[in-house]
Amino acid sequence: METLEPIQQTLREIDKRVPYSLRAAFGLAHRPVALPSDDGDIASFVASFFQPQDDGPGPAETRGNDEEEEPRARAGLRMDWACYARDHDEDAHFGHGEAGVVGVADGVGGYRKRGVDAGAFSRGLMTAAFAEVCAAEPGTPVCPHTLLERAYEDTAASGAPGGSTAVILSLAPGGTDNTLRWAFIGDSAFAVFRGGRIVHRSRRQQKRFNHPLQLSAREGGVAKADVGEMAVREGDVVVVGTDGLFDNVFDGEIGVVVRMGTALGFSPKNMADVVAGVAYEMSRSNERDSPYSIDSRKHRGDRRHGGKPDDITVVVAFIVSAYS
C-alpha cells in the first residue's frame, strides 16, 4: 500500500472501538468501564498482558544479538504497515510498502499564533519524501537521512511556512540485510517491540521542555538529526508516532497493546487504531498521569495531571517475511 492520503476516520470513531478491557485496565477516566465481575476469563486474559516485563534497554539503546538472532537474520524481511491519521490539522505521514519506508511529521503548532498554516511544512516534508521514493529505481535502498535532507531542501525551497518535527524509517525489502534505519529530528518518535518487550526507543530532541528541535526554512536543515540503525527480526513490531502519541501513552502501555494485539491476531491497521484510540482517551483525561504531565511537573514545577490534547498520528509496521 502506498499513500499520502489520511485515513478518513476520526479519533472519536476509533475511540468507540478501543477494547473496554483496555479502558478498565488502564483506568481511563474519560470513559470508565468496569470488567464484568462474573467474567473471570476476560479479567484473567487482560491481566496476563500486564505481567511484569523485562524493561529492556533504555532510550536509544538496543539489545545485543542472542543465539537465535543470527539464523533468523538470513531470511529476507519487509514491512507490513498501516496508519491511523486524522484527516486535517498539522500532522502528516507517508508510506511506501515496496520500498520499505514510512515517515511521520508534526507541524509546530506555535506558528498558528502568527497566522501561519502550522501544517504546511509537515505536509511539504512528507509529500516531498514520498515523491522522492516513488522516483527512485525499484529496489534501491532508502537512506532515511538522505531522504529527509532532500525532502527538507525541497520543502524549504517551496517557501512553505512554519516548521515541523519528523521521523523516517526504512527497511530494505527482501535480501538478507534486515536492518532498520532511521533519521529523526524533534519529538516525533518510534519504538521497536520484540515479543512485546521494547528493544529500542528513540530519544526525543528538544531545546527545553515542550520546545522540540524542528526543521524550518528559518532554523535550518537536518544537521542535528539523530541517525541510527539496528538489526530486526520477523515478528518485531515498530510503532511510529507524533508527540500526540508519546506525550500521552507510556512505553509500557504501548507494549500492553502490542502484546494483546499480537495474541488476538490484530492487523497493523487494527493495532494502529487501538494505539491511537488509547492515546486519544488519555489525552482527554484530567486525572491520569501521562508522560507529558509528569514532565510538566518536573520542568515547570506545576501540579498538572492528565493528558495533552494534540493531533495524533500512529504508524504500526509489522516486520514479516518477504516471502509471505
Describe what this molecule looks like in 3D:
The chain has 324 residues and is α+β, with helices and mostly antiparallel strands. The protein has one domain (2-28, 75-321): 4-Layer Sandwich (Phosphatase 2c, domain 1), CATH 3.60.40. It has ten helices and 14 strands. Strands 1, 3, 4, 5, 6, 11 and 12 form a seven-stranded antiparallel β-sheet that branches. It has a five-stranded antiparallel β-sheet with strand order 2-14-13-7-8. A two-stranded antiparallel sheet has the order 9-10. α5 crosses α6 (144-157) and α8 (251-264) runs antiparallel to α9 (268-283). The chain is globular and about 50 Å long.
CATH topology type: Phosphatase 2c, domain 1
CATH superfamily: PPM-type phosphatase domain
Helical element count?
A: 10
Distance between the termini: 15 Å
Unreliable stretches covering 5 or more consecutive residues: 1-8, 29-39, 55-73
Strand fraction: 15-25%
β-strand number:
14
- The best one-word shape is globular
How many domains make up the 3D coordinates? 1
pLDDT averaged over residues: 84
How helix-rich are the residues, as a percent range? 25-40%
Helix-strand sequence? EHHHHEEEHHEEEEEEEEEHHHHE
- Biggest sheet: strands, sense, closure? 7 strands, antiparallel
**What is the CATH first-level class name?**
Alpha Beta
**Secondary-structure-derived class:** alpha+beta
The Rg value, from CA coordinates, equals: 19 Å
Organism: Brachypodium distachyon
Cofactor: Mn(2+); Mg(2+)
InterPro entries: PPM-type-like_dom_sf, PPM-type_phosphatase-like_dom, PPTC7
Family: Belongs to the PP2C family.
